[in-house]
Amino acid sequence: MSTEGKPFFDDPNTALRQIAQNPAAYAHYLADFNRVVLDMQAKLEILQRETRVHCRGTRVEGDKMGQAFLRSFPVEKSLNDILKNLKSISSGLEKSAHKRHAHDEKVKEVKKSRKEKLQIKASKNSPPLQAAPENAGQRGGQSQNMGYGGPTSIYNLDRRESA
Prior knowledge:
mainly alpha, 4 helices
């Protein structure tokens, strides 16, 4: 039994490739990650409170005022940094889902605008030929209706009809 030419497993990135191509699946996938991140964030906030209470309450005989706080500060700071990073991850996941949707909308708009520009360019390059309408009355003499559309000169202003 030879395995040459055939991989043992399918491409592991196929599912992610399909998710990346569909904005709705992309948003759903990131929403799953966001739920996990928000759950971690909630649990770490509880842990932060409990750690703060415990570390600040742990006093050693001979402590002066504020020494327990100073000892607990590095632990609290590390948890605060983690929570800050989780909040930025959460907002980044949401932002990424919106930007992915906006990308598809922009691609549709670009296709549409390019198609319209091509149509405009084609109509400018080859305008449709239109025959000029012939009026038998204008050949020999003046037109009956000397309105805004008719030719006028300063010499026949007194004969012009008023609006």
